[in-house]
Amino acid sequence: ASYNGGAYVSDTSGNVTFVEGLKNESLIVTDKVSGFLYYTLPDETLWKMDLQTREKVSLGLSNVYSLSHSPDGREILVVQSDGAKFTLSLFDTDGGSHALIDEGQEIGAVSWSPDQRMIAYQLKNDADGRTSSGLYVHDMLTGETSRIAVDVAPYATTWSPSGKELVFNESDGTTYNSSIVYLDFSLDQ
Hints:
mainly beta, 4-stranded antiparallel beta sheet, globular, 19 strands
């Protein structure tokens, strides 16, 4: 599936503007950050377009499933899938400086805490013939990853402005549930 017809940018006043230079493109994933539009094409490659100059550059990343920019716009979390496994990796905004955060059978619901210290995500894995799914938090300061909820499969995570609470949403197709996790961590690591 793809979305033909390029990209549009809207502002808080409701003004919608067509992004010149992408009229005939089929875009799948898009994210606008600091004057740049990041997008994937149907071949799942990640591109970056300067919205001032309209210059388009491939970031050299393939099999891109989703992306999430850090609050300061300097880093990108990228979920990639080769069909056999998913990976969650950290890149700079030009696609360099790769760091693997996690990998598994499925990864989704990725979000940054407002201070960029924590990353939340859903991870599904097969272990000992059993499939398990959980909610994880990765601490960028210490490099440690903790599972904070077991047997959940959130489709979205959102941090509170303080970064001390994490909301996750789940659905079984008919029922929707939201839960809040209260986090207690120290900066003295």
